Amino acid sequence: MIDFTARFSPRSFDDREVPDEVLRQVFDAARWAASSFNDQPWAFLVAPRDREDEWRAILECLVEGNRSWARGAPVLGFSFARGVFARNGRENRHAWHDVGQASAHLALAAADRGLQIHQMAGFSTEAVMEAFEPPEGWRPVAGIALGYPAEEPPANRPRGEVEEFVFGGAWDRPARFV
Ligand SMILES: Cc1cc2nc3c(=O)[nH]c(=O)nc-3n(C[C@H](O)[C@H](O)[C@H](O)COP(=O)(O)O)c2cc1C
């Protein structure tokens, strides 16, 4: 069984750089996510710290509350979603869902290698669009800070109970098995 509790969102990172080979492995995990019509409507723009201009351009798109801790991350990035299917240009209602799945793969693969990612909604979409000019139809979904964590997962990690969100065919009636 995958240890889901091993993944968490750190705010402090070790100075250690992440080898390109390891980065490749964790992004390879994203490749294998399920997606509607196998459209794979995700893209990741990623900069290790030694690509200084690119790394800083990503940092500058974050809101100050995130920038303050994310500047300690050796790798920064953004996920993007393509809102239309590649095959026919029709709206893909599940694009963001699929980017989320790919990102979850990425997060678990990272945790499996002693790394962690911290995803961020706190960024300026306009700034990302202006700085990186994604192709038509692509929008940024989340900022990503990635690296070896310099902290332990918090002792208290609030989570709802399974009974509270797994229903048995009628809303608010917990499923039999929970
Ligand atoms: C889409 C998304 C957006 C998030 N945005 C932020 C953010 O802007 N700033 C932040 O500090 N954490 C952000 N987080 C991290 C969450 O707060 C964190 O995942 C949640 O508190 C659960 O903690 P855990 O990931 O350590 O289990 C975000 C997480 C996700 C998945």
CATH topology: NADH Oxidase
CATH class categorisation: Alpha Beta
CATH superfamily heading: NADH Oxidase
CATH architecture: 3-Layer(aba) Sandwich
Report the portion of residues in β strands. 15-25%
| Order of SSEs | HEHHEHEHE
**Number of beta strands:** 4
The order of strands across the largest sheet is: 1-2-4-3
Radius of gyration (Å) = 18 Å
Alpha-carbon distance between the termini? 19 Å
Q: Please outline the major beta sheet.
A: 4 strands, antiparallel
Unreliable residue runs: none
Structural class: alpha+beta
Overall pLDDT confidence: 97
Characterization of this structure:
- The chain is α+β, with helices and mostly antiparallel strands and about 180 residues long.
- The protein has a single domain, classed as NADH Oxidase (3-Layer(aba) Sandwich).
- It is about 30% helix and about 15% strand.
- It has helices spanning about 20-30, 50-60, 65-70, 95-110, 125-130, and strands at about 40-50, 75-80, 115-120, 140-145.
- Strands 1-2-4-3 form a four-stranded antiparallel sheet, with helices on both faces.
- The longest helix is centred in the middle third of the chain and has 18 residues, at about 95-110.
- The model has no long low-confidence stretch (mean pLDDT about 95).
- Flavin mononucleotide (FMN) binds near residues 9, 120, 121 and 142.
- Flavin mononucleotide binds next to strand 3.
